[in-house]
Design brief:
- It holds the Pfam family MIF.
- One of its GO terms (cellular component) is extracellular space.
- This is L-dopachrome isomerase.
- The structure is a single chain.
- With 115 residues, the protein is an alpha/beta fold.
- It has a single domain, classed as Macrophage Migration Inhibitory Factor, CATH 3.30.429.10.
- It is built from two helices and six strands.
- The strands form two sheets. The chain has a four-stranded mixed β-sheet with strand order 2-1-3-4, with helices on one face.
- β5 and β6 form a beta hairpin.
- α1 runs antiparallel to α2.
Length: 115
């Protein structure tokens, strides 16, 4: 149920995307404390984006989860995802925002119903 949506203006190829998906899945599961089998990661590359008035490499992320989030967890997730983006896409951590959503079970659909 933790879902990480990543958007970046950096074009991504299949190999890079696969690496990001693997690394982010493991990191989100570990930090949020949920099984990897529940984690979904989306990577959207080549998205038109400006940050601080420039089109230099940048990214935006949203992490949605039913529980498991909070100030210390969010800080760790922000740092870890920023590290992944720096390593895989050369996006400086100062050019990355991430928003966290801790949602109620009834606001998250799965398997034709809600959790």
């Amino acid at each position: 149920m933790p879902t990480l949506n990543l958007y970046t203006n950096v074009p991504v190829d299949a190999v890079t995307t696969s690496d990001i998906l693997k690394d982010a899945t493991k990191a989100v599961a570990k930090i949020v404390g949920k099984p990897e089998s529940y984690v979904m990661i989306l990577v959207n590359g080549g998205v038109p984006m400006a940050f601080a008035g420039t089109e230099a490499p940048a990214a935006y992320g949203e992490l949605i989860s039913i529980g498991g989030l909070g100030p210390s967890v969010n800080a760790k997730l922000s740092s870890t995802v920023a590290d992944i983006l720096q390593t895989k896409l050369s996006i400086d951590s100062s050019r990355f925002y991430i928003k966290f959503y801790d949602v109620q079970r009834s606001f998250f659909g799965f398997n034709g119903s809600t959790f």
